[in-house]
Amino acid sequence: MKLTRTQLQNLLIEQVLFSEGLRYHVENSIPLYDSIYRPGSKGFFSLISESRKMYNSGYMKVDEDEFDMLNSDLGEFALYEGREVALDFPISEAADYELQSLDEKKRRKKRKKKSKAKKSGSYYKGRKVKLNKPKRNSGSGGKFVVYVRNKKTGNIKRITFGARGMTTGLRNPARRKSFAARHRCEQKKDKLAPGYWACRIGRYPAVSGAPYTTWW
User: Fold this and answer.
1) Where along the chain do its domains lie?
2) pTM of the entire structure?
């Protein structure tokens, strides 16, 4: 794989961009079969694919052995029995078995992730909802509504809180202090209770309409 400095400069003028790896090969006259990347690695296959593209476009010259590499399907991938395999890249039976095991682990992990996502799908009465995100309530119940998952049952609970027709009083320090004392906000730890969210509505200024604050 050789290019004169003039040829390389011409390529730059033509705005033909080589990757860092291919440029290193070209500038140092390193043949593809002495790749700077580990055989079988992502960089190795990418280098072959890029070199093939540049050669077919007339930007590179290669020797006979490199031509054989570029004239193969090396650097290409295809599906075989549900697995993505590298073409024209011989590997040992042991390595192939190891790759199969790795692929199977990845598939199991992917299935588990999908299953978990599906299981944790936040649905309330068939409708998808966002959890732990208070918002103005347009339905029945209090002024605000929030959906929370019951960790013991896995079910989603709809919680409403706040008196309709009344302001939150968040802008008034005296009212905040009084509310916190009456409702013992510092002791509210149960997310499934309306009081927990009533004591924390100040943390959601986009919903409360008041500056960010807490009751205590």
Assistant:
1) 5-86, 123-208
2) 0.46
